[in-house]
């Protein structure tokens, strides 16, 4: 079974070029996070059902809901692959990858035992540095949603100034999308040790 693996490069620009040509093994997701290639196994059914549930609630006539789409973060040696990327339909490019971060309205990550630190710390800073307006962490370990908005700062010092936590089962206002997210069907992981993030 694959676990998160890190390969570090001395030159981050060289790592970005390497990553563009990198082909991970089948069933493995690879992301470039600040010059580090992070590989994780395919997600489980709880994860996939949450992503599908969120996607179904976002109106497709206004937004493209993209899975496994890598995002180019300006000024960073980073190409994260969020579980869901939400983009206004009228600004979606006709083709190509990665998707420029300036086009992104919201990114969604569903945390797992192996991704908690990356989702709550590393990616929080990376998405804020890329000025992604909203970052939603859905956490089936702790049965909560963490909505981060108002990105500020640069590089590793970047962060979101606003944080709203909602327990699974309650509705979550997503003003940026003009909707209330119903979390009542979100599943949780059994037998996973609790964590202390955010």
Automatic annotation (TrEMBL):
Pfam families (alphabetical): Uma2
InterPro entries, sorted: Nuclease_put_TT1808 (IPR012296), Restrct_endonuc-II-like (IPR011335), Uma2 (IPR008538)
Gene3D superfamilies recorded: tt1808, chain A
Domain Putative restriction endonuclease: 19-182
Domain of life: Bacteria
PANTHER family in UniProt: SLL1072 PROTEIN, SLR1083 PROTEIN
Protein name (database record): Putative restriction endonuclease domain-containing protein
């Amino acid at each position: 079974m694959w676990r998160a693996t890190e390969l570090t490069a001395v030159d981050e620009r060289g790592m970005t070029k390497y990553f563009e040509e990198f082909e991970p093994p089948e069933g493995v997701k690879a992301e470039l996070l600040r010059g580090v290639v992070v590989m994780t196994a395919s997600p489980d059914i709880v994860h996939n059902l949450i992503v599908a549930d969120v996607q179904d609630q976002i109106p497709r006539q206004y937004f493209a809901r993209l899975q496994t789409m890598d995002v180019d973060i300006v000024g960073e040696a980073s190409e994260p692959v969020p579980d869901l990327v939400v983009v206004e339909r009228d600004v979606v490019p006709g083709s190509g990858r990665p998707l420029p971060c300036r086009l992104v309205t919201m990114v969604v990550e569903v945390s797992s035992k192996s991704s908690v630190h990356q989702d709550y710390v590393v990616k929080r800073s990376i998405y804020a540095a890329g000025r992604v307006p909203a970052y939603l962490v859905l956490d089936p370990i702790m049965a909560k949603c963490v909505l981060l908005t108002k990105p500020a700062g640069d590089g590793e010092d970047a962060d979101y100034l606003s944080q709203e936590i909602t327990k699974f089962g309650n509705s979550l206002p997503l003003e940026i999308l003009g909707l209330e997210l119903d979390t009542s069907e979100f599943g949780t992981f059994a037998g996973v040790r609790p964590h202390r993030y955010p």
